[in-house]
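Form 12-C: Joint structure prediction
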Amino acid sequence: MMNGVLKRKIRENFVAYAFMAPALVIIALFVVYPIIYSIPLAFTDYSGVNPVVNYVGWDNFSKAVHSDDFWIAIKHSVMFVLVVPIIQVLSIMLASLVNRKLPGMSFFRVLFYIPVVTSMIAVSIIWNWIFEESGILNSILINVGLMKDPVLWLGDANLALFTLMFITIWQGLGYYMMLYLAGLQSLSPEMEEAAIIDGASRFKTFIKIKIPLLKPYVWFCSLMSVISAVSVFDVVFAMKDDGGPDNATMVANLYSYRKAFIDFDFGYSAAVGVLVSIVILALSTFVFIYGRRGGMNNNE
Amino acid sequence: MNKEFEAAYNLRAKKQMKKAVSTILLYVALILIALLFAGPFLWLLSTTFRAGENIYDMTLFTTHPTLSNYIGVIDFMNLPRILYNTTFITVVGTLLDIILAALCAYPLACMNFKGKGIVFGVLTSTMILPAAAGLVVNYLQVQRIHLIDSYWGVIIPGAVSVFSIILLRQAYLGIPKELIEASKIDGASEVRTWYKIMLPGVMPAISTLVIFDFISKWNAFLWPIVILQDPQKYPLATALKYLNGQFNYKFGYIAAGTVISIIPVIIVFLLFQKNYINAVSGAIKG
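Section 2 - Result
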């Protein structure tokens, strides 16, 4: 009797792990292991080429914090957080524009979402061609007489990072619009009607009633947006894979990537990665705690 | 007509007028924003029908449209080969993700086994913890199993995503327990129950995953650059990045290649947008 139960238990465990084994092996090797192994790798001089690997203590970390390039890259990644408030405000506005029961609204929603599903490479090719010195943006601005000389949107060290931020906003707006739209649609329409009957304007209802109710969404979206802003990589890699001009677009993850795959300094690259992760964790914890507090105050 | 009625009538007309004006303003705003979103794509498209030097021509419609860029890009990019690479990596990668995730999520949703809490906890924590040097370590892993410069080196590290497992587990949980019990009483094995009862039950979730996977794998460019050394093996997005860097004076070809790379994604998205958008907005509600 006891034996039968035990046998069944063992069999059940075996079947369960047999189902999971292929996926778990891949996740262990390519997801879990990299998270853990990043840290010891940061304490070595591994070059990817030389088979001899030495433990170098905190050398890579001290090299990073004493390097100007590292701090410039960190500064640019943190500056990218400027995208977060802009993208949140614009996407809430956009969501409220398309949240009407009028003909054609779903067309606009889908259209605004298309850049989100388009590859970063295609996006970068299109915008590179628009922002080029002899590109269409400059020709339009010169032709309508707004400027005399072309602006180097991507070539000017003072502008390039902001141009990349613009592209990030253009591509990401539809995504956050869709999330806020889900938020707006979860609010009960009676509340808005009541406010409008009481004589409040649509705008006032939006600011005073809807925005506070959307707070949990704003908090969640900002958190995601902060994490992806600090870990910005794709847009820079696609448009300016050397971080130029003159390091003006060098962001932390690109710096770490180049240290590994251009300079073959894998240990140093891993150390930079660990430091970047600490910055990301710190910033997202800040948003998490701050946002949670704000969200609770208003919803209880 | 008495005065009161007239006043009320005027007020209503005024209100309706105001409403009409605000609706028109809304559409004007939306159309302007739509131009900002669609304009770059339309301009790219119109460029591909332009020959040679007129790339920076500002008119949207060319007087002499030509398909020469689309014909030229076939040779220029070795398009048949590149499309084969892209399709292979996308299709095999998507299939593996669906199969492995559908298998792995089943016990997590429907069976009791030792270590269930630990397995689930580890899976969810990988979604939060950043892999500080994930790209570098994964490159070293692929090097260790000698899959550098092979399609499998591109496919295997991303062959199953934790996101897919968690999404499918959620879908399995929605299937009534009685169905599983009934199947077991009928004497079906676990594998048979999974195949005959569970898998058909989660088909809507699987079709959502197919769209997600298709789009992300078709668009992927970084990992293929890291793993593949021979540009002949590059998928479309990676090849475009590479060629745009090397031959940007061939802009007509690059533009045609870019249009070809975007079209499948837009078609899939348009066909399944309801499903896709529900999944995106569902993530925030859950």
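Section 3 - Comments
Residues 118 and 284 of chain B are 25 Å apart (CA to CA). The radius of gyration of chain B is 26 Å.
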